[in-house]
Amino acid sequence: MTLTDLVQQLLNAISLGGLYALVAIGYTQVYGIIRLINFAHGDLLMVGAYMALLLFASAHFPWLLSLFLALFITCMAAILMERVAYRPLRYAPRISLLITAIGVSFFLESGATVLFTGVPRSFLTMIPKMWRGQWKIGEITFPTLSFITIAVIVISLMFTFWVIFRTKTGLAMRAIARDFETTMLMGVDANRIISLTFALGSTLAAIGGILWAMRFPQIFPLMGVLPGLKAFIAAVIGGIGNVLGAALGGFLLGILEILIPAFWPELSGYRDAIAFFILIIILLWKPKGLLGSTVE
Amino acid sequence: MRITSELYLRLIVTLILFLLLLGILRWVETRVNPYWVQITTLAGIYVIMAVGYNLINGICGQFALGPNAFVALGAYATSLALLPSEEKIQTFVHPAGPYPWVVQWHLPNFYLALCVGGLVAAFHALLMSIPVFQTRGDYLAIVTLGFGEIVRTLLVNAERITNGATGIKGLPPYTTLWNTWIITFLCIVLTAGLNKSTFGRAMKAIREDEDAAEAMGISPRWYKTLAFTLSAFWLGVGGGLLAHHLTTLDPKQFTFFLTFNLLVVIVLGGLGSITGSISGALIFVYLNEVLRTIEEPHTLFGWEYVGIPGLRSVVFAFLLIIIMLFRSRGITGRAEISPVTLLGRRWLAKPKPAASSTLPRIKAKELPYILSISGVTKKFGGVVAVKEMDLKVTPGKIHGLIGPNGAGKTTLFNVISGFYRPDAGKILFQNILLNGKRPYHITPLGIARTFQNIRLFPELSVLENVMVGMHIHRRYSVWDALLWSPRFLSGEEKMRAMSLRYLEQLGLGELAFQPAGSLPYGLQRKLEIARALSSGPVLLLLDEPAAGLNPAETLELMQFIRSIQEMYNLTILLIEHDMRVIMGICEPVSVMDSGVKIAEGTPKEVQSNPAVIQAYLGGGKVT
Amino acid sequence: MGLQIKDLFASYGAIRAVKGISLEIPEGSCVCLIGANGAGKTSTLRAIMGLIRDRKGEILLDGQSLIRCKPYEVVRKGIAMVPEGRHIFPNLTVEDNLKMGAYFRTNSVEIQSDLERVFQLFPRLKERIYQLGGTLSGGEQQMLAVARALMARPRYLLLDEPSLGLSPILVQAIYYHIQQIRQQGITLLLVEQNARMALEVSDYGYVLETGKIYLQGNSSELSNNPDVQKAYLGET
Fold first, then answer.
1. What predicted TM-score, i.e. pTM, was given to this entire model?
2. What is the rounded average pLDDT of the residues B311-321?
3. Which of A22, A247, B380, B521 has its CA at a distance of 20 to 30 angstroms from the CA of residue B420?
């Protein structure tokens, strides 16, 4: 393995891990508050990517505006999803909520199939020309895009942590995840915080979806399923309910997923199964995840 | 004429239904076009898969999301066993061809192959159950989903076994309308038998309340594994039939989409009901066909409809959401259309007051102390809930254990009954050391308990609650139940008669067929005691039996407790925080506060003890 | 004026916990609810706050009905509650816990001055300002819970079992603080199993039994009433 290979693999691993981290935060926060594995969260990646492409390529909006509008629409879709499908079940058995989430996920996926057909579409047009090149530092070359991906991820994560750990709303999010009822006793409108949590998580998922689509520039209705599942696994690895844990789990999972096949090429066909093996091992070894919280 | 036994009635009706099925099949075969015959066959396969999947998700209440794995395993195992060796060598694209053992893997007969396919799936379920049942709830869902994905990845990658993504084409069309539906019938009858047996009740009890089930002597782990394995068996059989119905195999058939479809089926029908699974499967398959029209172009009243491919999935996803929002129990809920509900109970004679109408009892030993606890300590993190507790319980007494809220009484109960492990000290019951034993080990030794906040199995009937209580006295094995052996029929019959008599004695006879959760609160309390008693204990632990009752109900309950103590010659250890409740019936009384025993003696002595008054009323002045 | 509860019923599923309770809490007073465990004291408070959704009857704050209000609306109208078992946020610092108490308030200058006031009342908390709530001792957690409720600047404060699980010295300390809070003009509704302590600090008391009011009267009268002891211990 040459130095360039190694650096490229590492960048690859970090950017993949970062994508998982972005998506995992949405899972972990929603689970922390309403104890729901929001299966449909992964599909928000798809919604974000399709919206960006449609606005830019079909509606001919400016590039940057398309991206921001895509984030906004995804965010609204997530808030609507919570209002319509999850909120009425707030006091129902949790299994009902989980089944509903699976239903919402399939609704988004099959709806997208009907609207956009199952045929993959190229996302290349969304990638600006200057991002497609290679950077060269000394002997090492690496793709510009992976650099930009990592930069966007870092900025997004910093913004997210700022919201969660430095703002009043973030304070309420952390409080409500720990103790729903007592948070209401603080004069907090729980529904509003839940909506904001969905908004934050879905924005991150949409960013993740757009970056994912740039990395693997083919988008299709089921594109969010696997990254979504793996991001959820990342959240479990880190300790579900714990935002820092989700980020940590995301990076860890991304790095393992790239590096294991890099060192053992014969396992590359099983790449998608690696995450589940890690999940099972983690659950048996540390049922509460690496930064385990007290959530059951 | 009246039929004396529900189970014999069941047999008769089953036979009638079978003849009816044969008639319907004959009609479908001769009068319906071949396309719909195919669809009807598919419907039968879906019924098998749904009944199997429902066993773990609905009946045992473990929300598993990996049925696609077992369908796939069954399908591949069956197909490879029936494919001639030469054909395997020819069709496999891998340069090295299939593994030799894959080539040699051969079974002579479709039905044998189906059975083996089911067993292969069941065997994998058995292996998976080890990690899967380390988890619960959401984690269990995601771990099983993970196994589904792992199996699917294996199908694609293990090219020398499965022929990878290319799949296997040109399987012989062994699956017919007749063999499918006869297997379907068999599957329904066997699963219904299990469902109505002590084992099915144990699974439902676990679904309703795992801890309470454990307190009835049921090992949750064992029964979850049983349900999971049997479920996998039927899913595997369904897979084998499906493969020889479609005549092609391809890993794409076994994605999460299959799981989603099966989930729609069992949720639509009603989680936990076999009748529901059957109706759900039929509706799903036929609706799926009918809805095909919305994907095809039509001209409606001169209006051109182009047809929207893929719209059916949207409809089913929407349907799933709507069911959960507005009718989360599906079509049937947990109810079953059984021979009894069809004909009504008037066809059933009252059970004869059989000779064996007294409850089975566990024999007590003659000892000065039935229970002796010495130096028991239990900590949670840094908090010491029970501290060096000593307690001796004399046989034949109603021993009161009282103390204010948070004194550690319930913790002590949980230590005695095996829900918590003590950090120090010894618990001896009839000279048997209980330390480290699980609740389901302790119940058969002769200790039964109730819970502070009633923990009945709310969706099971009053009768079933009591029969779950008798779980440890069952007289037949799983095989008896699965195969409807005479031992199962007569054993079940006796248990029923006994339970009905027992409920009558307690004045709950009229309510035997009501769901326990629908009873008024006071009767629920009484039923919980009755359920605990039905395991035939030597020592009964009652945790605040009067909590939430008004004074009149409390008085009645206390008389009830005294009467069962006399009737069954029990020893009772009774927790209560409200001192007034136990004054009349307990002696001696031990008082706990902050994890320590602060007093012991007759009620009168305890009541005037200054330490006790201080514990109850608080003390001191503001300085 | 004041807080009036008329014929309040509340249930959890099939279980009726509160069966027609009427209370009168005049502004500036301190009223206590006492009774044995399971008598419905906590449920009464939870029903007032709207934490039990299945309730009926009437709750009037200065004549204005609260029966349809959600918990956060009740808090914003000036009624705060310290829940039983403290329920501080273990994953937040002392400072953040207190900020949560003032969550719905917007005037940061006032919040800051209230923070100072609370720290004057509970100097121990100031020493631990950056510590996580979960690392505090039981007594400190109880102080934090009370301080957090004060940060909402309530006119009415409902206290649920402030002495639960505390050693006698800490119980005295907490009650010392409760009296100080009263002197600041906050109306108190105190729920206690520790009847002696509660009757000591309050003006008026209600004795609850199985979800109903069994006895009521001036606290000084109640503390000498043999029926109170009976309510706890039965016939002696």
1. 0.91
2. 93
3. B521
Which strand (E) or helix (H) includes residue B128?
A: helix B110-132
What is the Cβ-side half-sphere exposure of residue B351, based on CA atoms within 13 angstroms? 23
Q: How confident is the model at residue B9 (pLDDT cuts 50, 70, 90)?
A: confident
What number is the average pLDDT over the span B232-249? 97
Say what the ipTM of the complex is. 0.91
CB contact under 8 A, C89 and A168: no
Left (φ > 0), alpha (ψ -120 to 50) or beta: where does A179 sit? beta
Mutate to test the interface with C, among A166, A185, A194 (most CBs of C within 10 A): A185
Q: Which of A173, A139, A158 is nearest to A247 (CA)?
A: A158
**Amino acid code (one letter) for B232:** A
Assess C106–B contact: CB distance below 8 Å, yes or no.
no
- Using CA coordinates, name the residue in chain B closest to A226: B149
Return the ∠ at Cα C106 (arms to C105 and C108), rounded to 5°: 105
- Across the interface, of B63, B135, B145, the residue whose CB is closest to A283 is B135
Report yes or no: A56 and A63 within 8 Å, Cβ to Cβ. yes
What is the per-residue pLDDT for A135? 83
- Average pLDDT (B520-532) is 92
CA distance C139 to C131: 15
A162 exposed, middle or buried (CB, 10 Å; 0-12, 13-18, 19+)? exposed
Preceding peptide of B395 cis, ω within 30°:
no
Among A161, A208, A172, A176, which residue's Cα sits nearest to residue A35? A176
Amino acid at A217: P
pLDDT tens, position by position, B78-136: 999 999 999 899 889 999 889 999 999 999 999 999 999 999 999 999 999 999 999 88
List chains adjacent to chain C, taking adjacency as at least 3 C-beta pairs closer than 8 Å: A, B
Contact across the interface for A189 and C75, Cβ inside 8 Å? no
Chain-wide mean pLDDT for chain B? 90
The list of chain C residues with pLDDT below 70 reads 233-236
Q: Do A175 and C80 touch (CB under 8 A)?
A: no
pLDDT in tens, C62-91: 999 999 999 999 999 999 999 998 899 999
Q: What DSSP state is assigned to residue B587?
A: B
Mutate to test the interface with B, among A41, A83, A91, A102 (most CBs of B within 10 A): A102
In the prediction, which pLDDT does C209 show? 84
Which tokens go with A291? 């930064």
Helices (H), B247-349: 256-269, 274-290, 311-326, 339-343
What does the alpha-carbon distance between residue B15 and residue B340 come to, in Å, rounded to a whole number?
14
The verdict on a CB contact (< 8 Å) between C104 and A186 is: yes
Q: Report the side by side order of strands in the sheet with C55-61.
A: C15-26, C2-12, C55-61, C64-65
Q: Tokens representing B375? A: 């130096």
CA distance C205 to C223: 9
* Residues 6+ away with beta carbon under 8 Å from B493: B5, B6, B7
**E strands present in C123-199:** 156-160, 187-192
The pLDDT of residue A294 is 45
Report whether pLDDT(A52) > 80: yes
pLDDT tens-digit map of A243-256: 999 999 999 999 99
Chains sharing 3 or more CB pairs under 8 A with chain A: B, C
**B620 contacts C172? CB cut-off 8 A:** yes
Cα A52 to Cα A43: distance, rounded to the nearest angstrom: 14
Task: State which H helix or E strand residue A121 sits in.
Answer: strand A121-122
Interface probe for B, chosen from A110, A119, A229, A271 (most Cβ of B below 10 Å), is: A110
Angle formed at CA A100 by CA A99 and CA A105, multiple of 5 degrees: 100
Q: Mean pLDDT, to the nearest integer, of B436-455?
A: 94
C87/A187 Cβ within 8 A: no
